[in-house]
Amino acid sequence: VILYDYFRSSASYRVRIALALKGLAWDAVPIHLLHGGGEQHGEAFRAINPARAVPVLQLADGTLLTQSLAIIEYLDECHPTPPLLPADAVGRARVRALAQIIASDLHPLNNLRVLTYLGQICGLDADKRRDWYQHWTLAGLEAFEVLLARNGSTGRFCHGDMPTLADCCLVPQLFNARRFECPLDHLPIIGRIATECEALPAFISARPELQPGAD
Amino acid sequence: VILYDYFRSSASYRVRIALALKGLAWDAVPIHLLHGGGEQHGEAFRAINPARAVPVLQLADGTLLTQSLAIIEYLDECHPTPPLLPADAVGRARVRALAQIIASDLHPLNNLRVLTYLGQICGLDADKRRDWYQHWTLAGLEAFEVLLARNGSTGRFCHGDMPTLADCCLVPQLFNARRFECPLDHLPIIGRIATECEALPAFISARPELQPGAD
Q: Which pTM does this prediction carry?
Protein backbone atom coordinates (compact mmCIF):
# COMPACT_ATOMS: atom_id res chain seq x y z
CA VAL A 1 0.00 0.00 0.00
CA ILE A 2 0.98 3.63 -0.49
CA LEU A 3 0.48 6.17 2.29
CA TYR A 4 0.27 9.83 1.29
CA ASP A 5 1.74 11.21 4.45
CA TYR A 6 3.07 14.28 6.23
CA PHE A 7 5.47 13.53 9.05
CA ARG A 8 3.95 16.06 11.49
CA SER A 9 0.26 15.42 10.67
CA SER A 10 -1.26 13.75 13.69
CA ALA A 11 -3.95 12.16 11.49
CA SER A 12 -1.23 10.53 9.36
CA TYR A 13 0.64 9.51 12.50
CA ARG A 14 -2.47 7.60 13.69
CA VAL A 15 -2.48 5.55 10.49
CA ARG A 16 1.28 4.90 10.66
CA ILE A 17 0.84 3.48 14.18
CA ALA A 18 -2.02 1.24 13.01
CA LEU A 19 -0.06 -0.02 9.99
CA ALA A 20 2.92 -0.77 12.24
CA LEU A 21 0.78 -2.52 14.89
CA LYS A 22 -0.61 -4.73 12.10
CA GLY A 23 2.90 -5.48 10.89
CA LEU A 24 2.12 -4.05 7.43
CA ALA A 25 4.78 -2.40 5.27
CA TRP A 26 3.94 0.76 3.34
CA ASP A 27 5.52 3.09 0.81
CA ALA A 28 5.34 6.69 1.98
CA VAL A 29 4.69 9.54 -0.44
CA PRO A 30 5.43 12.72 1.53
CA ILE A 31 3.02 15.60 0.92
CA HIS A 32 4.58 18.64 2.52
CA LEU A 33 1.83 20.80 4.00
CA LEU A 34 4.03 23.93 4.12
CA HIS A 35 6.38 23.77 1.11
CA GLY A 36 5.32 25.87 -1.87
CA GLY A 37 2.19 27.09 -0.11
CA GLY A 38 1.19 23.51 0.71
CA GLU A 39 1.51 20.56 -1.68
CA GLN A 40 -1.97 19.41 -0.59
CA HIS A 41 -3.49 22.36 -2.49
CA GLY A 42 -1.86 21.43 -5.84
CA GLU A 43 -3.88 19.96 -8.69
CA ALA A 44 -2.02 16.63 -8.52
CA PHE A 45 -2.90 15.99 -4.90
CA ARG A 46 -6.45 17.34 -5.16
CA ALA A 47 -7.08 14.60 -7.75
CA ILE A 48 -6.11 12.12 -5.02
CA ASN A 49 -8.04 13.79 -2.21
CA PRO A 50 -10.36 16.72 -2.95
CA ALA A 51 -10.44 17.44 0.79
CA ARG A 52 -6.73 18.44 0.45
CA ALA A 53 -5.72 16.45 3.50
CA VAL A 54 -3.46 13.60 4.49
CA PRO A 55 -3.51 10.71 5.15
CA VAL A 56 -4.66 8.91 2.01
CA LEU A 57 -4.10 5.17 1.73
CA GLN A 58 -3.84 3.80 -1.81
CA LEU A 59 -4.56 0.10 -2.12
CA ALA A 60 -2.84 -2.23 -4.61
CA ASP A 61 -5.75 -1.87 -7.07
CA GLY A 62 -5.56 1.93 -6.93
CA THR A 63 -8.52 2.47 -4.57
CA LEU A 64 -8.01 5.64 -2.54
CA LEU A 65 -9.11 5.66 1.11
CA THR A 66 -9.34 8.93 3.03
CA GLN A 67 -9.98 9.96 6.67
CA SER A 68 -7.70 8.42 9.27
CA LEU A 69 -10.34 6.62 11.35
CA ALA A 70 -12.02 5.14 8.27
CA ILE A 71 -8.61 3.92 7.07
CA ILE A 72 -7.80 2.32 10.44
CA GLU A 73 -11.21 0.59 10.58
CA TYR A 74 -10.52 -0.75 7.07
CA LEU A 75 -7.11 -2.07 8.14
CA ASP A 76 -8.67 -3.67 11.20
CA GLU A 77 -11.34 -5.42 9.11
CA CYS A 78 -8.91 -6.72 6.47
CA HIS A 79 -6.06 -7.56 8.85
CA PRO A 80 -7.79 -8.61 12.07
CA THR A 81 -4.68 -9.55 14.07
CA PRO A 82 -3.89 -7.90 16.42
CA PRO A 83 -7.36 -6.33 16.79
CA LEU A 84 -7.58 -2.55 17.24
CA LEU A 85 -11.18 -2.72 18.48
CA PRO A 86 -12.59 -4.82 21.36
CA ALA A 87 -14.67 -7.93 20.70
CA ASP A 88 -17.88 -6.57 22.31
CA ALA A 89 -20.17 -3.88 20.89
CA VAL A 90 -20.13 -1.69 24.02
CA GLY A 91 -16.34 -1.87 24.14
CA ARG A 92 -16.10 -0.95 20.47
CA ALA A 93 -18.44 2.00 21.07
CA ARG A 94 -16.24 3.15 23.95
CA VAL A 95 -13.00 2.91 21.96
CA ARG A 96 -14.54 4.68 18.98
CA ALA A 97 -15.87 7.44 21.24
CA LEU A 98 -12.45 7.98 22.81
CA ALA A 99 -10.91 8.13 19.32
CA GLN A 100 -13.57 10.60 18.18
CA ILE A 101 -12.99 12.93 21.12
CA ILE A 102 -9.58 13.45 19.56
CA ALA A 103 -10.50 13.13 15.89
CA SER A 104 -13.75 15.14 16.01
CA ASP A 105 -13.73 17.36 19.11
CA LEU A 106 -10.10 18.33 19.52
CA HIS A 107 -7.83 17.92 16.51
CA PRO A 108 -10.02 19.64 13.85
CA LEU A 109 -9.81 22.90 15.81
CA ASN A 110 -6.05 22.85 16.14
CA ASN A 111 -4.62 21.70 12.86
CA LEU A 112 -2.49 23.72 10.48
CA ARG A 113 -5.26 25.03 8.21
CA VAL A 114 -7.26 26.39 11.16
CA LEU A 115 -4.32 28.01 12.94
CA THR A 116 -3.32 29.60 9.61
CA TYR A 117 -6.84 30.97 9.06
CA LEU A 118 -6.95 32.36 12.62
CA GLY A 119 -3.70 34.23 12.00
CA GLN A 120 -4.08 35.35 8.40
CA ILE A 121 -7.83 35.96 8.08
CA CYS A 122 -8.98 36.60 11.66
CA GLY A 123 -5.84 38.54 12.62
CA LEU A 124 -5.21 36.65 15.89
CA ASP A 125 -1.67 37.12 17.18
CA ALA A 126 0.55 34.26 18.38
CA ASP A 127 -0.59 34.60 22.02
CA LYS A 128 -4.27 34.35 21.10
CA ARG A 129 -3.60 31.43 18.79
CA ARG A 130 -1.77 29.66 21.64
CA ASP A 131 -4.72 30.34 23.99
CA TRP A 132 -7.08 28.91 21.35
CA TYR A 133 -4.87 25.83 20.92
CA GLN A 134 -4.62 25.17 24.64
CA HIS A 135 -8.32 25.80 25.30
CA TRP A 136 -9.55 23.12 22.89
CA THR A 137 -6.72 20.69 23.59
CA LEU A 138 -7.36 20.76 27.32
CA ALA A 139 -11.16 20.62 26.91
CA GLY A 140 -10.74 17.42 24.90
CA LEU A 141 -7.97 15.78 26.92
CA GLU A 142 -9.57 16.57 30.29
CA ALA A 143 -12.79 14.87 29.17
CA PHE A 144 -10.70 11.97 27.86
CA GLU A 145 -8.99 11.64 31.26
CA VAL A 146 -12.35 11.52 33.10
CA LEU A 147 -13.64 8.85 30.71
CA LEU A 148 -10.51 6.79 31.41
CA ALA A 149 -10.77 7.32 35.18
CA ARG A 150 -14.41 6.38 35.54
CA ASN A 151 -14.44 3.14 33.53
CA GLY A 152 -13.15 -0.21 34.72
CA SER A 153 -12.21 -1.21 31.17
CA THR A 154 -9.25 1.17 31.23
CA GLY A 155 -6.17 -1.00 31.59
CA ARG A 156 -2.54 -0.82 30.66
CA PHE A 157 -3.83 1.02 27.59
CA CYS A 158 -7.00 3.10 26.99
CA HIS A 159 -9.14 -0.04 26.81
CA GLY A 160 -7.71 -3.22 28.27
CA ASP A 161 -4.14 -4.39 27.99
CA MET A 162 -3.58 -4.12 24.24
CA PRO A 163 -3.38 -0.94 22.16
CA THR A 164 -6.56 0.02 20.31
CA LEU A 165 -7.77 2.71 17.93
CA ALA A 166 -8.01 5.03 20.96
CA ASP A 167 -4.27 4.73 21.68
CA CYS A 168 -3.52 5.27 17.95
CA CYS A 169 -5.25 8.66 18.31
CA LEU A 170 -4.01 9.63 21.77
CA VAL A 171 -0.25 9.39 21.18
CA PRO A 172 -0.12 11.66 18.10
CA GLN A 173 -2.29 14.24 19.86
CA LEU A 174 0.11 14.29 22.81
CA PHE A 175 3.06 14.76 20.45
CA ASN A 176 1.16 17.70 19.00
CA ALA A 177 0.23 19.11 22.44
CA ARG A 178 3.84 18.97 23.66
CA ARG A 179 5.02 20.75 20.52
CA PHE A 180 2.65 23.61 21.42
CA GLU A 181 3.80 23.50 25.08
CA CYS A 182 0.39 22.59 26.41
CA PRO A 183 0.40 21.68 30.14
CA LEU A 184 -0.37 17.99 30.60
CA ASP A 185 0.87 17.14 34.11
CA HIS A 186 -2.66 17.14 35.56
CA LEU A 187 -3.65 14.21 33.31
CA PRO A 188 -1.94 11.24 35.02
CA ILE A 189 -3.78 8.35 33.34
CA ILE A 190 -3.17 9.80 29.90
CA GLY A 191 0.48 10.28 30.83
CA ARG A 192 0.85 6.73 32.10
CA ILE A 193 -0.77 5.21 28.98
CA ALA A 194 1.32 7.38 26.66
CA THR A 195 4.48 6.10 28.34
CA GLU A 196 3.31 2.50 27.83
CA CYS A 197 2.56 3.16 24.16
CA GLU A 198 5.71 5.08 23.40
CA ALA A 199 7.85 2.12 24.50
CA LEU A 200 6.35 -0.19 21.86
CA PRO A 201 8.21 -0.71 18.56
CA ALA A 202 5.12 0.10 16.44
CA PHE A 203 4.66 3.48 18.12
CA ILE A 204 8.38 4.20 17.87
CA SER A 205 8.59 3.42 14.15
CA ALA A 206 5.66 5.77 13.45
CA ARG A 207 7.28 8.78 15.12
CA PRO A 208 7.28 11.96 13.02
CA GLU A 209 11.03 12.55 13.00
CA LEU A 210 11.69 9.08 11.55
CA GLN A 211 9.52 9.56 8.45
CA PRO A 212 10.71 10.33 4.89
CA GLY A 213 10.45 14.05 4.25
CA ALA A 214 10.82 15.07 7.93
CA ASP A 215 12.65 18.37 8.24
CA VAL B 1 -33.01 3.70 25.31
CA ILE B 2 -32.69 7.30 26.46
CA LEU B 3 -31.25 9.95 24.16
CA TYR B 4 -29.81 13.08 25.76
CA ASP B 5 -30.61 15.42 22.94
CA TYR B 6 -30.72 19.02 21.75
CA PHE B 7 -33.13 19.63 18.92
CA ARG B 8 -30.75 21.85 16.92
CA SER B 9 -27.57 19.85 17.50
CA SER B 10 -26.61 18.30 14.19
CA ALA B 11 -24.72 15.52 15.99
CA SER B 12 -27.91 14.60 17.89
CA TYR B 13 -29.91 14.86 14.67
CA ARG B 14 -27.62 12.21 13.07
CA VAL B 15 -28.44 9.76 15.87
CA ARG B 16 -32.18 10.52 15.70
CA ILE B 17 -32.14 9.65 11.99
CA ALA B 18 -30.27 6.39 12.67
CA LEU B 19 -32.66 5.39 15.48
CA ALA B 20 -35.64 6.12 13.23
CA LEU B 21 -34.15 4.23 10.25
CA LYS B 22 -33.71 1.23 12.57
CA GLY B 23 -37.29 1.54 13.76
CA LEU B 24 -36.19 1.99 17.37
CA ALA B 25 -38.17 4.07 19.88
CA TRP B 26 -36.33 6.36 22.28
CA ASP B 27 -37.08 8.60 25.22
CA ALA B 28 -35.63 12.06 24.71
CA VAL B 29 -34.11 14.05 27.57
CA PRO B 30 -33.63 17.58 26.19
CA ILE B 31 -30.38 19.30 27.22
CA HIS B 32 -30.73 22.92 26.21
CA LEU B 33 -27.36 24.21 25.04
CA LEU B 34 -28.34 27.87 25.54
CA HIS B 35 -30.68 28.03 28.53
CA GLY B 36 -29.07 29.08 31.81
CA GLY B 37 -25.64 29.43 30.18
CA GLY B 38 -25.94 25.91 28.74
CA GLU B 39 -27.31 22.88 30.58
CA GLN B 40 -24.41 20.79 29.20
CA HIS B 41 -22.04 22.66 31.55
CA GLY B 42 -23.99 21.79 34.71
CA GLU B 43 -22.70 19.25 37.21
CA ALA B 44 -25.60 16.87 36.53
CA PHE B 45 -24.88 16.58 32.82
CA ARG B 46 -21.10 16.55 33.20
CA ALA B 47 -21.54 13.37 35.24
CA ILE B 48 -23.23 11.89 32.17
CA ASN B 49 -20.74 13.23 29.63
CA PRO B 50 -17.58 14.99 30.80
CA ALA B 51 -17.13 16.27 27.24
CA ARG B 52 -20.27 18.42 27.87
CA ALA B 53 -21.82 17.46 24.55
CA VAL B 54 -24.90 15.81 23.14
CA PRO B 55 -25.85 13.25 21.99
CA VAL B 56 -25.49 10.65 24.74
CA LEU B 57 -27.32 7.34 24.39
CA GLN B 58 -28.16 5.57 27.64
CA LEU B 59 -28.78 1.84 27.29
CA ALA B 60 -31.27 -0.15 29.39
CA ASP B 61 -28.48 -1.25 31.79
CA GLY B 62 -27.35 2.35 32.31
CA THR B 63 -24.32 2.22 29.98
CA LEU B 64 -23.64 5.67 28.54
CA LEU B 65 -22.46 5.94 24.92
CA THR B 66 -21.07 9.21 23.58
CA GLN B 67 -19.98 10.56 20.17
CA SER B 68 -22.57 10.37 17.41
CA LEU B 69 -20.66 8.17 14.95
CA ALA B 70 -19.70 5.68 17.68
CA ILE B 71 -23.36 5.54 18.75
CA ILE B 72 -24.56 4.93 15.20
CA GLU B 73 -21.98 2.17 14.65
CA TYR B 74 -23.20 0.57 17.89
CA LEU B 75 -26.82 0.74 16.72
CA ASP B 76 -25.82 -0.77 13.39
CA GLU B 77 -23.99 -3.65 15.07
CA CYS B 78 -26.80 -4.47 17.51
CA HIS B 79 -29.70 -3.83 15.11
CA PRO B 80 -28.32 -4.85 11.71
CA THR B 81 -31.52 -4.28 9.68
CA PRO B 82 -31.60 -2.09 7.67
CA PRO B 83 -27.80 -1.78 7.45
CA LEU B 84 -26.27 1.69 7.65
CA LEU B 85 -22.90 0.51 6.31
CA PRO B 86 -22.23 -1.42 3.08
CA ALA B 87 -21.37 -5.14 3.12
CA ASP B 88 -17.84 -4.73 1.68
CA ALA B 89 -14.82 -3.28 3.46
CA VAL B 90 -13.98 -0.72 0.75
CA GLY B 91 -17.60 0.46 0.73
CA ARG B 92 -17.61 0.76 4.51
CA ALA B 93 -14.37 2.77 4.35
CA ARG B 94 -15.95 5.09 1.77
CA VAL B 95 -19.13 5.66 3.80
CA ARG B 96 -17.15 6.23 7.01
CA ALA B 97 -14.87 8.70 5.20
CA LEU B 98 -17.85 10.67 3.86
CA ALA B 99 -19.35 10.74 7.36
CA GLN B 100 -16.04 11.88 8.83
CA ILE B 101 -15.66 14.74 6.35
CA ILE B 102 -18.72 16.14 8.08
CA ALA B 103 -18.10 14.90 11.62
CA SER B 104 -14.35 15.64 11.75
CA ASP B 105 -13.49 18.23 9.08
CA LEU B 106 -16.55 20.45 8.97
CA HIS B 107 -18.91 20.34 11.92
CA PRO B 108 -16.35 20.72 14.76
CA LEU B 109 -15.37 24.12 13.41
CA ASN B 110 -18.90 25.43 13.20
CA ASN B 111 -20.73 24.31 16.28
CA LEU B 112 -22.09 26.50 19.03
CA ARG B 113 -19.13 26.35 21.41
CA VAL B 114 -16.68 27.42 18.68
CA LEU B 115 -18.82 30.25 17.31
CA THR B 116 -19.31 31.47 20.89
CA TYR B 117 -15.54 31.41 21.56
CA LEU B 118 -14.85 33.28 18.29
CA GLY B 119 -17.28 36.01 19.33
CA GLN B 120 -16.63 36.29 23.06
CA ILE B 121 -12.91 35.50 23.35
CA CYS B 122 -11.50 36.32 19.89
CA GLY B 123 -13.74 39.35 19.38
CA LEU B 124 -14.89 38.40 15.87
CA ASP B 125 -18.00 40.29 14.79
CA ALA B 126 -21.04 38.66 13.18
CA ASP B 127 -19.74 39.20 9.62
CA LYS B 128 -16.42 37.53 10.36
CA ARG B 129 -18.13 34.65 12.14
CA ARG B 130 -20.36 34.17 9.09
CA ASP B 131 -17.28 34.17 6.80
CA TRP B 132 -15.66 31.58 9.08
CA TYR B 133 -18.80 29.43 9.04
CA GLN B 134 -19.17 29.54 5.27
CA HIS B 135 -15.46 28.98 4.62
CA TRP B 136 -15.31 25.65 6.48
CA THR B 137 -18.78 24.51 5.48
CA LEU B 138 -18.04 25.00 1.78
CA ALA B 139 -14.55 23.48 2.05
CA GLY B 140 -16.12 20.34 3.49
CA LEU B 141 -19.21 20.13 1.30
CA GLU B 142 -17.33 20.89 -1.93
CA ALA B 143 -14.94 18.00 -1.22
CA PHE B 144 -17.96 15.83 -0.36
CA GLU B 145 -19.57 16.71 -3.72
CA VAL B 146 -16.40 15.75 -5.66
CA LEU B 147 -16.19 12.42 -3.82
CA LEU B 148 -19.81 11.74 -4.76
CA ALA B 149 -19.26 12.79 -8.39
CA ARG B 150 -16.16 10.70 -9.02
CA ASN B 151 -17.34 7.37 -7.60
CA GLY B 152 -19.68 4.95 -9.32
CA SER B 153 -21.03 3.74 -5.94
CA THR B 154 -22.97 6.97 -5.50
CA GLY B 155 -26.59 6.09 -6.12
CA ARG B 156 -29.95 7.37 -5.07
CA PHE B 157 -28.19 8.09 -1.77
CA CYS B 158 -24.52 8.79 -0.93
CA HIS B 159 -23.63 5.12 -1.36
CA GLY B 160 -26.03 2.95 -3.32
CA ASP B 161 -29.79 3.06 -3.12
CA MET B 162 -30.35 2.86 0.63
CA PRO B 163 -29.49 5.50 3.24
CA THR B 164 -26.22 4.95 5.12
CA LEU B 165 -24.23 6.60 7.89
CA ALA B 166 -23.10 9.18 5.31
CA ASP B 167 -26.68 10.32 4.68
CA CYS B 168 -27.32 10.44 8.45
CA CYS B 169 -24.51 13.03 8.64
CA LEU B 170 -25.23 14.95 5.44
CA VAL B 171 -28.85 15.92 6.08
CA PRO B 172 -28.27 17.54 9.52
CA GLN B 173 -25.28 19.46 8.16
CA LEU B 174 -27.43 20.86 5.34
CA PHE B 175 -30.10 21.90 7.83
CA ASN B 176 -27.36 23.71 9.72
CA ALA B 177 -25.89 25.29 6.55
CA ARG B 178 -29.28 26.60 5.44
CA ARG B 179 -29.85 28.10 8.86
CA PHE B 180 -26.63 30.09 8.43
CA GLU B 181 -27.63 31.03 4.83
CA CYS B 182 -24.70 29.23 3.25
CA PRO B 183 -24.91 29.05 -0.59
CA LEU B 184 -25.46 25.44 -1.71
CA ASP B 185 -26.80 25.71 -5.27
CA HIS B 186 -23.46 24.72 -6.80
CA LEU B 187 -23.63 21.30 -5.11
CA PRO B 188 -26.19 19.44 -7.27
CA ILE B 189 -25.52 15.85 -6.18
CA ILE B 190 -25.70 16.79 -2.51
CA GLY B 191 -28.93 18.67 -3.24
CA ARG B 192 -30.48 15.73 -5.09
CA ILE B 193 -29.56 13.25 -2.33
CA ALA B 194 -30.84 15.56 0.39
CA THR B 195 -34.20 15.79 -1.39
CA GLU B 196 -34.36 11.97 -1.54
CA CYS B 197 -33.56 11.66 2.17
CA GLU B 198 -35.87 14.42 3.34
CA ALA B 199 -38.86 12.63 1.81
CA LEU B 200 -38.34 9.52 3.97
CA PRO B 201 -40.37 9.12 7.19
CA ALA B 202 -37.26 8.41 9.31
CA PHE B 203 -35.61 11.65 8.24
CA ILE B 204 -38.86 13.57 8.72
CA SER B 205 -39.44 12.28 12.25
CA ALA B 206 -35.89 13.30 13.25
CA ARG B 207 -36.32 16.93 12.18
CA PRO B 208 -35.27 19.50 14.79
CA GLU B 209 -38.59 21.36 15.02
CA LEU B 210 -40.43 18.14 15.88
CA GLN B 211 -38.34 17.29 18.96
CA PRO B 212 -39.29 17.80 22.62
CA GLY B 213 -37.79 21.05 23.89
CA ALA B 214 -37.67 22.74 20.46
CA ASP B 215 -38.19 26.47 20.77
A: 0.98
